[in-house]
Amino acid sequence: MCGIVGYIGTRNCVPVILEGLRRLEYRGYDSAGIALVRDKEFFIQKKAGKVSNLAAALGEAEGTVFATLGMGHTRWATHGEPSDINAHPHWDQKKRIALVHNGIVENYQAIKTKLLRDGHTFLGATDTEVLAHLVGVMYDECRDLPTAVRLALSEVDGTYGLVVIAKDDPGRIVAARKGSPLLIGVGDGENFIASDASAIVEHTRKVVYLDDGEVADITTSGVRTMTIDDVTVEKPIHQVTLELSQIERGGYDHFMLKEIHEQPETILNAMRGRLLVEEGDVKLGGLQNIIGRLLSARRLILTACGTSWHAALVGEYMFEQIARIPTEVEYASEFRYRDPIVNIDDVVFLISQSGETADTLSALRDAKTKGATVLGIVNVVGSSIARESDGGVYAHAGPEIGVASTKAFTSQLTVLALITILLARVRGMSRERGQVLARELATLPDKVQTILKETEKIRKIAEEFKDAKNFLYLGRGANFPVALEGALKLKEISYIHAEGYPAAEMKHGPIALIDENMPVVFIVPKDGIYDKVVSNIQEVRARRGRIIAVANEDDTDIDELAEFVIRVPRTYGFFGPILNIIPLQLLAYYIAVARGTNVDQPRNLAKSVTVE
């Protein structure tokens, strides 16, 4: 969840590192720090808060300090509160080595106890400082940085994306990975290290992805990659296609607003070259080699976290109702710890925006050891889930910088819809029926564009409710997950307490909360259970709740029931969530703006959750 940037070469690395950290700040923004090696001495600066605080603390040094070797870090706190002391980089007892770390050292307390007995003292409360001391001990013994890192990591339980430098060895950087993403950018007489390609793409598009259990010895002349046991590993160089324009705001006030407005394009990108409208079919190259396993699957299991879990819930409705395959949805964070019954004729889909979500990656590995086929639905090419899956489908949403997911969610839903049509066709659905579904799916980008024209109306509703203490979101069928996702968006960025429920479940408890101060958002499309949802609306009206309805354009009855109505076009039932979530994303955004919160970097959250 933290951001890591490192550089070794001939140019001044300070601006390279600071700009890289700014691009990675969405991955963690509790504190930031930088470590440079100059004349075999460390220059280290660390500050609580955002990268701007670090840049301010550097002050004149930012423009005057010259170093050709350095690393930086922006933190999302696990062990130890955000503070100058707990910020990375950390150094060892003798201040001979420094390191930055993303992940969790699970056995840090045992290591710390032993080091304390040996006379070590610690300044902060982090597991990373303990790891720095351990590497320092090994460095004292072997006087070789790559060896010291390998020996130290052989004693570590947990996860890490790790970058280490030594002040008396200014010609190298050592990096290591287990469970936390790390890549090396390959340049001409210079090399870069980062936890995400966005930090270095303006300098090089050639990258090497480290895999779990690998250590890299990086110099200006090249990169040697090895295992922790010192077995050399030959690594391919990949070409990154990311464009700088994709990770800039492009005139929008926030990345989140930009990404909401990108959804007509990103939904289209998810379908491009895959949806065969005239054939009423779908072509997914990432599933082509395992289609037989999908056909013979006893059941499908969808597992994910957060917003991706909500997408999985919609996928369950799609797979069961259209493709007629038994489907279950699991929280990835709970999956492996309850020792689930998974068989070789099960197919497990792992859904993750980053492809690095620690809980989802653990679920993948657990399902794989049980013999199941594992398939990824991810957004990031070359991510761990993409590489470790038996197959899968990329969402093609492009970089998502806003911490609260928007366009990745609708792209995931689009991919799930594509997979549904594919499965239904190979299981016997007629071409004519496939054409109906494919034609409707193809209309969704334009229908999303229609919804985005209603932003001013939604902004006015947001002004009305910006001071609310609680919100309730209600939907039925495939729109129940939309209620969950709408509530999550509001919680994440406005800090208003919100809950999503199946509309019929309201009277089994949450109805006790409803009074004249309670805004209640209903997702109420004109479908087969419309009248049931209307009955739930009447129950809220009877208790003076304030009703906001997301309803179809041609629904004239809803105006008499709801105080506020947000119109969306009609679509086929199970595609509805792709449209119905758009106004809820905008509602959360405008409420957060009205409350003055940091929309793109909400408190306590980070974009890619790479720790359990």
Distance between the termini: 11 Å
Q: What best-fitting shape do the alpha-carbon axes yield?
A: globular
Question: What is the oligomeric state here?
Answer: single chain
Share in β-strands = 15-25%
Q: What's the count of strands?
A: 26
What is the fold named in CATH at topology level of the largest domain?
Glutamine Phosphoribosylpyrophosphate, subunit 1, domain 1
Radius of gyration: 25 Å
Portion in helices: 25-40%
Low-pLDDT segments, ≥5 res: none
Mean pLDDT: 92
Identify the CATH architecture of the largest domain: 4-Layer Sandwich
Number of domains: 3
The major pleated sheet works out as: 8 strands, antiparallel
Which superfamily, in CATH terms, is the homologous superfamily of the largest domain? Aminohydrolase, N-terminal nucleophile (Ntn) domain
**Can you count the helices?**
19
The strand line-up of the biggest sheet is 3-2-4-1-10-9-11-14
CATH classification, class level of the largest domain:
Alpha Beta
Structural class category: alpha/beta
